[in-house]
Each structure stands twice: as structure tokens, then as C-alpha cells.
């Protein structure tokens, strides 16, 4: 088996900050799935957890965020490439990628 054939399972937990944007959360979720496809990963599951209040508020003007979880399979480079593509995206507040 070559290195390009190796596929691992991952789960990305993402907090969206859609203040000041007109797009609904579904469009942001579709954009995230397209970004995963661009880095060579395939989405195996998605779960929208809705809007939740933060336990520790860092900004009084933003006490909550929209939580989303994406499960995906991809090469070992997919998590770092996905994080790099989202680095400058202003709609992403936090991202956590775990191996599943």
C-alpha cells in the first residue's frame, strides 16, 4: 500500500461566527464540505449542534456560536491542509480536528 492510498478517519468540531454575514449556517456547512473535498477528503457524516452559549466568554458582544461536527476520511495530510485553508476565514471562530 502506497502513502497516497492511506486513508484515516477524522472528526472536525467547528464553531461558526456568522455575525455580520447574510449567509445561513447551511451555506457555511456546504462551503466547509467543499473545502474538505478540495483537500482530498470525503465527508462521511455531519451534525449541526445548533447555537450554544460559551462557558468562558472572551467577548461580551459574542457570547455564543454555532457548533458543527464533520466526520471525514482522508489522507494524513488532510487535517493540516483543511486547517490551513480555513485559517483566514472570518466565519470560523474555532476548529478542532481529532483522529477518529
Give keywords.
single chain, 100 residues, alpha+beta, Alpha-Beta Plaits, four-stranded antiparallel beta sheet, 2 helices, 4 strands
Notes on the structure:
The chain has 100 residues and is α+β, with helices and mostly antiparallel strands. The chain has one domain: Ribosomal protein S6/Translation elongation factor EF1B (Alpha-Beta Plaits). The chain has two helices and four strands; from the N terminus they run βαββαβ. It has helices at 25-38, 78-85; strands at residues 8-16, 42-53, 64-74, 92-99. The chain has a four-stranded antiparallel β-sheet, covered by helices on one side. The longest helix is centred in the N-terminal third of the chain and has 14 residues, at 25-38. It is elongated and about 45 Å long.
